Amino acid sequence: MNNISRKFTADAEKKGFDPVHRKTIKYNMSRYDRAVDDGMKQFENLELARQRAAYLKYKIINDLEDQLREFESNFKANGGKIIWATDAKDAIKGILKVLQKQNAKSVVKSKSMTTEEIEMNEALEKQNIESLETDLGEYIVQIAGEKPYHIVTPAMHKSKEDIASLFHEKFKLDKDSSPEEITGYVRNILREKFKKADVGITGCNFLVSDTGSVCITENEGNAMMSMSFPKVHIAVAGIEKLIPSLEHLDLFWPLLAGHGTGQHITVYNSIVNGPKKSNEADGPDEMYLVLLDNKRSELLKQEKQRIALSCIRCGACLNACPVYRNIGGHAYATTYSGPIGSVISPWLFGMKNYKHLSFASSLCGKCTEVCPVKIPLHELLLRNRNDAVKKGAYEFSEKVIMFGWKQSLLNRKMLDMSGGKFKNFILKRAFSKTWGPRRTLPKMQSKSFSQQWKEKERRKK
Question: For residue 352, which of 318, 311, 384 has the smallest C-alpha distance?
Fold first, then answer.
């Protein structure tokens, strides 16, 4: 077991049995569940919508190279500039080059898991460039010195009392401040930051191949201000974010909103076609798009797991997962948590370090059931487990244990020759820690099933 998997086990244990954490996440998840039940009512035939979305996304993934060429051509024709990034280091280098060209000292940014993936805020901070999160949830976890807890709702692990206490500590607000008071306070801070920022950075929900458009969906308007107030706009997106045509947004936007937050559609939906034109009064003078690979090509090589690149980051699988609902997002110690994170993290960040996430699942199939693009997540977790063994991503102790287990199970004499006391001793020595301190190990019978069966048959005679 490596250090990352040990930390996961320890953090999962801590969070899973923390009554305050469980109470908070249970309450916040229950609100989500009620909202999604309502959001799904907008679909006359939800299964058909999911089938169409799954077909379109998987078609794009299997034709990704040509689709990227088409998008690049159309985006450049709109006046945009593309930065191709092989990995996180390339992406940061490209972003810093733009910021240095602008002599930028401050950046406002909207919510983006891709910028979290490349650890952009930390990189800019090292260059003495202020990078301020403008999504309320992201702003809360930023000032708390934390990472996002959830793909869609980054501060889901905090109650309103937790947030009021945080703002009292950081800004001397009344410790009993209401959500409305806190929101108003943050709004006043951010408005000034929007006005003075040198560059705005956003994520991206969809890239449209046939028009070269960048599509952003949000509920607070902060992304709109991040890309319209500053003179330079940088968008950051994974290469898998493509959809074929603008007309398909009427399918993907409701699916994303319904599964993500339970809304029929999010409050603000922007289609950005490059920098402002000569006949337009508002918008940035320059627009850059960072297209990030960061080992997505490695995932693309996998015949079965590549379908995971169809993900539209709605977070539905996290909210459905019984493991996530107990241990929460931070225990995963990776950008993408929950079932989808457990599938893609071993490929993006290293099988040896993150293969344990594919084992942290009940395989109940609920994640597959709720996925709006029909990714068979529980099946992919099993495939990851198989690939982890094939790639040799296991410890020597695991190899020895499995070899011994295999030899025992294949040999009837070995199973029968030792009594229950010896078997229980071995079981306790080998599995007591893995089984956990809150569960009682099962006890082996003194005689094997084979021995008991033979005795039963003899009595019949």
Answer: 384
Range of the domain at 21: 1-42+310-391
Q: Are 9 and 357 in contact (CB under 8 A)?
A: no
pLDDT in tens, 402-441: 888 888 888 877 777 666 777 788 778 777 777 777 788 8
Beta bridge partners of 202: 235
Q: Kindly state whether residue 448 falls inside one of the protein's structural domains.
A: no
Per-residue tokens: 263 = 């809304």
How far is 267 from 264, CA to CA, in rounded Å? 9
Q: What are phi and psi of 309, to 5 degrees?
A: -70, -5
- Contact 272/249 with Cβ under 8 angstroms? no
One domain for residues 348 and 407: no
- Using CA atoms, how far apart are residues 234 and 227, in angstroms rounded to an integer? 8
Please tell me whether residues 208 and 99 are part of one structural domain: yes
Residues 258 and 121 placed together within one structural domain of the fold = yes
Looking at residue 183, its pLDDT comes to: 96
pTM, two decimals, is 0.91
What would the mean pLDDT of 115-137 be, rounded to a whole number? 97
459 CB neighbour count, 10 Å cutoff? 7
Task: In the chain, count H helices and then E strands.
Answer: 24, 10
CA 410, chain centre distance (Å): 41
The angle at the Cα of 404, spanning 400 to 409, to the nearest 5 degrees, equals: 150
Q: What share of the chain is helix, strand, coil (3-state, %, to 5)?
A: 55, 10, 30
Q: Which of 294, 328, 358 is the C-terminal boundary of a domain?
A: 294
DSSP per-residue codes, 74-91: HHHHTT-EEEEESSHHHH
CA-closest candidate to residue 261, choices 154, 395, 140 = 154
